Amino acid sequence: MKAAGIDLTGSESKATSIAIVSGGKIRLYRATADHEIIEVVSREKPDVIAIDAPLTKPHEGYLRKLERKAAKEGIKLLPPMLRGMRKLTERGVRLRRALEERGFNVIEVHPTSSRKILGISGSLEEAWKNALGIAKVSTSPDIKPSRDDLDALLAAITGIYYLKGKYRSIKGEGELILPSP
Q1: For residue 166, what are the contacts with CB-CB under 8 A and spacing of at least 6?
Q2: pLDDT at position 114, please?
Q3: Hey, which of 8, 60, 119, 152 has its CA 20 to 30 A from 159?
Q4: d(CA 51, CA 91)
Q5: Using one digit for the tens of pLDDT, what is the confidence trace for 68-89?
Q6: pLDDT value of position 68
Q7: What is d(CA 125, CA 146) in angstroms, rounded to the nearest whole number?
Q8: HEC profile for the chain?
């Protein structure tokens, strides 16, 4: 099983973190433009691509039914059409379509919620080590992960749970995948 986790940014001028989890190893990448993200995942050929960004738009207003359902479960998601989220949502929708056209399985995830569900807490360093333990992967000890790298790793871990069938989803103008506790 191979999963790609993408902590997408709203602008192609800012680096996006990509984590590939496979065979007991994690590889980290940074890409800015959409075509660079597509190149990385095309080269890696993951079984699933888990993206931390809204991948659909609401039919009307700022919220999808998905956000409303998640809120009832205590999961806080930012409205996709909120001024600060609009560019991220539009990029997520565009990237999802481009990846699906190339035959990839793409899912929407929320690493902050995955982190809570999986009981990963502590400082960035502690959370990184705990996430590596949950994913049963290792990385070079000299890597100093960023918060974006951690989110990409958590997205990939959620993708692994998805591939194993150990997940639940919240649906409504899109679908959010969460690991089963």
Answers
A1: 179, 180
A2: 94
A3: 60
A4: 11
A5: 999 999 999 988 888 889 999 9
A6: 93
A7: 9
A8: CEEEEEECCCCCCCCEEEEEEECCEEEEEEECCHHHHHHHHHHHCCCEEEECCCCCCCCCCCCCHHHHHHHHCCCCCCCCCCCCCHHHHHHHHHHHHHHHHCCCCEEEECHHHHHHHCCCCCCHHHHHHHHHHHHCCECCCCCCCCHHHHHHHHHHHHHHHHHCCCEEEEECCCEEEEECC
Distance CA(73)–CA(178), nearest Å, equals 12
pLDDT of amino acid 5: 97
Tell me what pLDDT residue 138 has. Answer: 67
In whole angstroms, give the CA distance from residue 160 to residue 48.
8
Distance between CA atoms of residues 65 and 60, nearest Å: 10
User: Architecture of domain 2-179 in CATH?
Assistant: 2-Layer Sandwich (3.30)
On the CB side of 159, CA atoms within 13 Å amount to 30
Tell me the domain boundaries of the chain.
2-179
Question: What are the backbone dihedrals phi and psi of residue 136, each rounded to the nearest 5 degrees, phi first?
Answer: 55, 45
